[in-house]
Specification:
By secondary structure, the protein is mostly beta strands. It contains no helices and 22 strands. Helix content is 0%, strand content 52%. About 3% of the residues have low confidence.
Length: 188
């Protein structure tokens, strides 16, 4: 099963999300490409889902035309996916909190293509290896015109295993960064 919430206005190419107030909760999602896909939506919650063994990501947030905004990803258990939570495109506010993200091989959270206005707090990360990035800033094209940017991101109070490589907690490959705050990771 895959849950998709899609709010793009393909006819009018609106810059405003056209799907609102969706709630995706208490699902068991296994073995698909992406577990929960929130694209161009607003005021949505994905909570208390058990997402396992997806081929790309447990949760994906994306922007086509309308800005995804006021999204909450909380209290999910995500395991065995390359990326726990993947995000691309400017957003009007995403909160990723209190999730258990385990066994990921690429990143616990990945930011790609101009990500902005994100808070990630109180998540528990257990990566596949001690050098797997917990948070990865990965622009789609380095040197593009205009240059992609990571902006208004707050990463605080997340837990990682003892012995996880310090350099792999936040791996940022963006060259343009504005107002990105990365606090201490709690080691357990």
């Amino acid at each position: 099963m895959r849950s998709t919430c899609y709010g793009d206005d393909t006819a009018g190419h609106s810059t405003v999300a056209t799907s609102h107030r969706a709630t995706i909760t208490d699902n068991q999602i296994r073995g698909c490409s992406i577990g929960v896909f929130l694209e161009t939506v607003a005021d949505c919650v994905a909570a208390r889902n058990v997402i396992a063994d997806c081929k790309i990501a447990g949760v994906r947030i994306n922007r086509i035309h309308g800005e995804p905004r006021n999204l909450t990803i909380e209290r999910n258990t995500i395991s065995g996916t390359p990326i726990g939570v993947a995000m691309g495109g400017d957003t009007g506010g995403v909160v990723i909190r209190d999730n258990a993200i385990r066994g990921f091989t690429k990143a616990g959270i990945e930011f790609s293509y101009n990500v902005s206005r994100v808070t990630a707090t109180a998540n528990r990360f257990v990566p596949a290896t001690r050098t797997t990035p917990i948070v990865l800033g990965q622009p789609t094209t380095l040197g593009s015109t205009p240059e992609e940017q990571l902006a208004h991101v707050n990463i605080q109070n997340n837990r990682v295993p003892r012995g996880h490589d310090q350099e792999s907690l936040f791996v940022n490959r963006y060259r343009r960064v504005a107002d990105v705050e990365v606090g201490q990771f709690v080691r357990q």
